[in-house]
Design goal:
Layout (H helix, E strand, L loop, with lengths): L2 H5 L16 H13 L9 H22 L1
């Protein structure tokens, strides 16, 4: 083994595994998390009500997916 081979880090034999596409539940969780960040406490506007309604629907869908 030469000095240059010892000084270089070892090369990986295989490529890293390909990223798998997100599942439906993961996509719903990501959308729900993004919407939760937009909720403002004690604000009762029509936009906030739509956000809360969507979060409610996503939560119900996630619970039915997990129960199945």
């Amino acid at each position: 083994m030469t000095w240059i081979a010892r000084s270089l880090p070892p090369e990986p034999d295989d490529d890293p595994p390909a990223a798998r596409p997100p599942t439906a539940a993961e996509q719903l969780r990501a959308e729900r998390a993004a919407l939760l960040a937009q909720v403002r406490p004690r604000v009762r506007s029509s936009r906030q009500e739509r956000i809360r309604r969507r979060i409610r629907d996503l939560t119900r869908t996630l619970l039915t997916l997990e129960a199945a």
